[in-house]
Amino acid sequence: MLTLIAAVAENGAIGFQNKLLYWLPNDLKRFKALTTGHTIVMGRKTFESLPKGALPNRRNIVLTRNADFTAENTETFASLKQALAACSADEEVFIIGGASVYKEALPYADRLCLTLVHDTPAEADAFFPTLNADERKVEVEEKHDADERHAFDYTFIDYVRRV
User: Fold this and answer.
1) Burial class (CB in 10 A: 0-12, 13-18, 19+), 100
2) What is the Cα–Cα distance from 29 to 33, expressed in whole angstroms?
3) End-to-end alpha-carbon separation of the chain, Å?
4) What is the chain's pLDDT, residue by residue, as a tens digit (163 residues)?
5) CATH architecture of structural domain 2-161
6) Nearest of 145, 143, 146 to residue 155 by alpha carbon
7) What pairs with residue 142 in β-bridges?
8) SS3 state at 96
């Protein structure tokens, strides 16, 4: 199972200057709950944006063309194709960013676990690829209002591939 997971603004924005746009504790909890115990695949810049390096209790795969790149508790591959080939058929794999990795992986994704943030940021330089509504259907949709810990309304929305 290949899953893309991201927090996405209404205009598709996902980041600015190699940082997440939103701090939503419930989104972070959901991310941890879904990915713990599984494989996560990310580009090198996304890996470098993680405050403490490799995420614990997950197989961390970093995509980089730099053959000299190494990081503790990670595996590196030069391409998404090589990384996915190194995963077993029964392994649940989550693509966690960045924009170019999402774009490359989208055609192969079985599921998308998105947090749609009901906001359009003033600045963004990374965007989630546009979805084709004919290829996906909503499996789960859960709306949440802004509160003292969440500055924006948001919706957890999971898409699956249409058969």
Assistant:
1) middle
2) 6
3) 15
4) 999 999 999 999 999 999 999 999 999 999 999 999 999 999 999 999 999 999 999 999 999 999 999 999 999 999 999 999 999 999 999 999 999 999 999 999 999 999 999 999 999 999 999 998 889 999 999 999 999 999 999 999 999 998 8
5) 3-Layer(aba) Sandwich (3.40)
6) 143
7) 156
8) coil
